[in-house]
Amino acid sequence: MVVAAAFFGVFLTIAWFAGLFGIWAAFLLVPALWHYCHAVQLAAAQGKRVIPAVEFNQLNPLGGWRVTVHFILFSLFLVMLLYVEPLGAAGFGGVLNWAAVFATMFVFPASAATLGVTSSLEDSLNPKGVARLIRILGPTYFWLVLPLAALTLAAALAPIYIFSRMSFLAISLNNALCVWALLATFAAAGISIRQHRTEFDIPGEVETNAEYAQRLERRRWRSTLDLAYGSIRSGLVAEGYETLRRLSADYGDSAEIQYWLFENMLDWEDRTHALAVGARLIERRIAAGQLYESLELHTRCRRLAPGFTVSAEAKVALAAFARSIGRHGLADELGPAAG
Predict the structure, then answer these.
(1) Domain 209-338's class?
(2) Helices 312-324 and 291-304 meet at what angle, rounded to 10?
(3) Does the predicted TM-score (pTM) go above 0.70?
(4) What is the DSSP letter of 49?
(5) What angle do CA 280, 282, 285 make, to 5 degrees?
(6) S-S: 35 plus which of 58, 179, 269, 291, CB 3.0-4.6 Å?
(7) 319 closest CA partner among 311, 310, 328
């Protein structure tokens, strides 16, 4: 989202200074930004792990006309309230006018989310549909409104109080920050909707409880491996290996954790540590009767390091198995060393 925010921030600033050309550029950029916001929201609601990039077809203001019309309606209404002040600029009329501004900002995330969920402009403008979404999200909804309200006010007041005294770079950074906050709001709305996906019946990528637990488990493995790597690189080799031994023991010294350690330790600058794990893993697989897997792993380790070796007993077992499956060259390579 940072790259997309920078992209829109810079080009919206160019449009601001570009005169008549800027009007045409804004006519393309603003709807494109709104379409991208909805794409981010939908991706988050579907549970996708990668935020989509800005697509060229999003620069077509006529494509996805419902999103464009939705944006125009809310934008014009806010502009009218903030600058025309139809309900008054002071006194009770001013209070009503600002109340209408905040009410509009309050319902907008729900309206936009309803449009994203139903793809229906009518539902997104229907008070019942909007109220239903707010009711489903509950207190979470208020955390979507607060940042968007602050963003909207900042964007509305910036041309009056800031832009006239800011450089091109400063305005670009300001625009990029506003775009990022807007994208973050839509992403947060998508995540909130995903947590209630059964009520909204949204198709997409679903992370099961087992997948979630596995992801957290792998994160812990990675953190422990990084800690061990730091110890070994600092010269505390024994401490590093003890960290890895405890991690493996926590999971019953399973083949899964051993293979994971071997594969990921190969990324280290010094592969001798991974090969040491590989040698122990080969000997354990032989003891478990998994001779084919052991032979394949041994062959792979020899490719990585021609001097790689295992215990004499392991060599004898591997040589006998290699000969039994017709890999006589490999058996001869292992056999003499076993004697």
Answers:
(1) mainly alpha
(2) 110
(3) no
(4) S
(5) 110
(6) 58
(7) 328
